[in-house]
Amino acid sequence: MSNHLSRRQFIQTSTAIGAGLYVSGKALGADVPKKDVINVALLGAGAQGQVLMDAILKMKSPGIRFVAVCDIWNVNRRRVMKRMKSYSKHYGYRYADYVDYKEMLDTEKDLDAVIVATPDFWHSEHTVACLKKGLHVYCEKEMSNTLEGAKKMVEAQKASGKLLQIGHQRRSNPRYQHCYNNLIKGSNLLGRITTINGQWNRSKASCEDIMDWTKDPEKMKIDQATLEKYGFKDMKQFRNWRWYKGMGGGPIVDLGSHQIDIYSWFLGCNPRSVIASGGTDYWKDHEWYDTVMAIYEYETKQGTVRAMYQTGTTNSSGGYFENFMGDKGTLMVSESAGRGSVYRENWVLEEEWQKWVDKGYITKSEGLPAKKDADEDAVLDVREGSYAPAEYKIPVKMDVPYHQPHLVNFFNTVRGTEKLNCPGEIGYETAATVLKVNEAVAQKKRLEFKPEDFHA
Amino acid sequence: MKQLLLLTVFIASLLVYPVKAEDPESLIGQGNDGNRSGPVHVIELLDDKGNQIRSKDADPKPFSTRKTCGECHDYEKIAAGWHFNGHDTDIEAGRPGEPWMLVDSKTRTQVPMSDRNWKGVFSPEQMGVSPWEFVKQNFSHFPGGSYGEMEPDEPDEIIRQEISGSFEINCLACHNADPHQDQSVAAMQSARQNYRWIPAVSSGMAEVKGVASALDDFFDPEFDEGIKTAYKENLFDSEDKVFFDITGKPSNERCYFCHSSQKLSVGEDQEWTRDEDVHLASGLNCVDCHRNGDDHMITRGTESEGPGQTLTCEGCHTGEHHAEMPEMGRLGAPEPAHRGIPVVHFEKLTCTACHSGPWPKEEAGRWRTARMHKTGLHGKHNLEITQPHVYAPVLMKGADGKIGPYKVLWPAYWGMLKDESIEPMAPKDVLAKAKNILGKNAEKEDDWKSLTEQQIAEVLKLLGSEDAEAVYVAGGKLYRLNAKGGIESQTHAAAEPYAWPLAHDVRPVEQALGVRKCKDCHTTDSAFFFGQVQMDSPVKSDGGPEFVEMVKLQGIDRLYMWAFNFSFVFRPLLKIVAFASCGLIGLVLLAYVLKAVAAFSNACAKEDE
């Protein structure tokens, strides 16, 4: 048994003494009704876990309390414990840290929910264990690195009756919700969508291997036995698991799953096929493909849609965005709050879109004329003339941490006031869609989807 | 059972091994054996945990003044001194001084902020400013200690303080004689929230790479490489000790960084034309008068009791000739002649009324101060910071009943009126409700974002409730909703200007008021009485800015003062007229006396016959 148990008892005991000295009702959390208290554990306190914790803390909801953190790396636990300590000091509740998730689940009797932000290959086991304990789960994407794992998660959710939200946070992003509800469904602004392209390009510098434990290896290294117990061969693999087969799915899954999820959401259906090209072209010591280009075919009610997606790890050109092209207009949207425009095809009359401007669905870009004067140097297409399409802006702001709306949705659903925007079943559909790409790359051929592929 | 045992052991350990406090009296830096040469400081550097910093440390920490200086000097005693006790509401604060300011252009707020019990200031807590926020806002000229060492209560602030460190008293800001000491550097580190690094970096002993405010909340100084300290080469001797060039008498430069003022009418390129205080020109230093002992309770120049009593104008320049020993002439102070000045002046005026600050003009000028306007930051002149608007010299009556020169500013704030007193509202609370109204395109007028009466009415409607009436104070007026939903204004005690006495720069005697006799002040248009002070306000007014005359602030009836001053037209003639009249009366009387004598003589002569 680790010495966590005795330390935990000490924390409980001394905290009990300290709590007795508090005179402030706020310190005791007495002003938060018990029904509004949600005790949360963070399982996986690495970079993404910290991002989620930060987003939750910034919700400024005193009822949501981080009472436990579990991570096999002491460095991650320390970082998170510092934040937990400051909140527990202010609100007067206890907290504890663990290495082993089973010990945490056995010991923590007052937990309500768990944020799972461990590597993909652990998602299934961790999520299933938490659901079986009767806890609600917010699990980071990708849902699992295997479909079998994802399936187990959906089954466990159904059996437990608890909530399972998958971390495709764009589903709760107010800008994306506006685009879907108002521009796609509400107004059919783009007309018939025929093509999509999306990308996430990262610079070489952003994709270098993380070697941060080398600052003080003696203190920062995880012992070999623990690493191996949890499936890692060394610290380098532990810190860079996304590149390894059997652990993650490489950039197409890491990054692409966010955006490919949007394709399916906005089109209202799952793809019928995918073809892909990729390879470990640059990062020779990585296992997964560092450059991937995939083309999906969707069959929507309006007709066929071909959706291209690429991810690169050597050049950041264009960053990340999704571009939906219809016969009347184009929607370019990105999670990056500053990017988001809608373009009216030149044959569409300005008056036709004016009513959507009046309704507040889009706003005209200030200072940009609807039509440019003819300019020989700016000829885009000899049949198009020289006109660039008129640009409109998405009028919805998103000025909170990117993951926060999705977490708000999760906790509000826990409280019974909302429904999940990305429950396990939808996460499974996306997992099925995205994981197929690596198969397509490996098989070098067009792969078909069957409808049952998207149901756990 | 196990838990009970643990609890017992824990409590017992506290009783058996009480934390042993260092006896301050035993510290070698306390007390003074009378030797006027200061000790040479070659000492160990200690970090904020009390660990020694050595030359060979791979990841050296910045030194802590609490631990390093506190090894020999009673840090807690010093921390209770005047510069560092601003947060202590139990301290008797004495005469009003320059406050800290809260200026928020969005809500058109400017309020003097202090925890000292001065009339007219608001505490940071009243304005919704936490100690952590206070230090952030006043980063540039904050001396350390006080709010900087208070433990935050908000979780986010707790975590930021762990990353940035406490803002300890920077002893070196005053006591470092090394010319490398740079408070402008201290201000920059403070702006970056590198509080832990301020003493080391501003002294020139170390460099820091990294910005604490940019590090995320999960930053772990033990493992993360976000901020790095590097000490100067050859700083440490063979015993890992460091030489500090310490002086017990800080130079004027050290005081000037926080205690400078700029007269805006002079113009930045004409600053060289301004003369320093006559005391400094005569060879004195600031600390010759403004001194303290170990307790750092610096004399402010107006003490009426205690050792500081003699370090005042009167204490040095006047006193009994025939006391046990001569009481005047300290530090070579000349005895004032005050020839021909009626004694009533010394009853009604402060010394500074005639001797200090700029010569009064028909309109009080605008000034900037180091602390309010963040001056002295080399490389960033901050000339664009002109708010709050401070006016000086304003000749007005103080709490001691005497007229003296003051610096003045007009508070502007939103508040709730309850039983004739106003509870101010924090700008963030006002903005939360009224952002859309206050954020409308506002013209800039005289540095303010202007505010219309319509806007005031709309905001007051949003802020008010059934239980409390919302009001706005600005420019010496209180604005409230009237029965028709419009705005009415009135005077109110809460709208009075905040004023603090002005004592420097003292002018030479040949430039004191009265050197040209009575007419320096006693004319019907003298600036002393009839000079104007602009009632600074963001509220748009068709008639332009409003003014108040100094005579009103002196509590004197204008007509009376005008008439009294008018009499001085005739005063030089008065003596002649008086003597002439007396002479004439005397002659008339003499004539009657002579007549009477003559009549008496005639009567006596007739009797003899």
Count the E strands of chain A: 16
CATH domain class of the largest domain in chain A? Alpha Beta
CATH topology group of the largest domain in chain A: Dihydrodipicolinate Reductase, domain 2
**What's the total helix number of chain B?**
21
- Mean pLDDT of chain A, as a whole number? 90
Taking the sheet with the most strands of chain A, its summary is:
10 strands, mixed
User: What's the alpha carbon Rg of chain B, rounded to whole Å?
Assistant: 31 Å
Shape of chain A: globular
Largest interface: A-B, 27 and 22 residues
- Note the gap between the termini of chain B: 142 Å
* Weakly predicted, low-confidence segments of chain B: 16-21
Number of DSSP E strands of chain B: 21
Fraction in helix of chain B? 25-40%
**Structural class designation of chain B:** alpha+beta
Largest sheet, spatial ordering of strands of chain B: 8-9-10-11-19
Number of domains of chain B: 4
Report on this model:
By secondary structure, chain A is an alpha/beta fold. Chain A folds into 2 domains: 4-168, Rossmann fold (3-Layer(aba) Sandwich); 172-401 and 425-454, Dihydrodipicolinate Reductase, domain 2 (2-Layer Sandwich), CATH 3.30.360.10. Chain A has helices at residues 4-21, 47-57, 74-91, 101-107, 120-132, 147-160, 174-186, 217-220, 224-229, 235-239, 251-254, 256-267, 350-358, 404-414, 424-443; strands spanning 38-43, 64-70, 96-98, 113-116, 136-139, 164-166, 193-201, 271-279, 291-300, 303-312, 320-326, 329-333, 340-344, 363-364, 390-393, 447-448. The longest helix of chain A is centred in the last third of the chain and has 20 residues, at 424-443. The radius of gyration of chain A is 24 Å and the shape is globular. Chain B has 21 helices and 21 strands. Chain B has 4 domains: 2-248, no CATH class; 253-409 and 500-559, no CATH class; 416-494, no CATH class; 573-609.
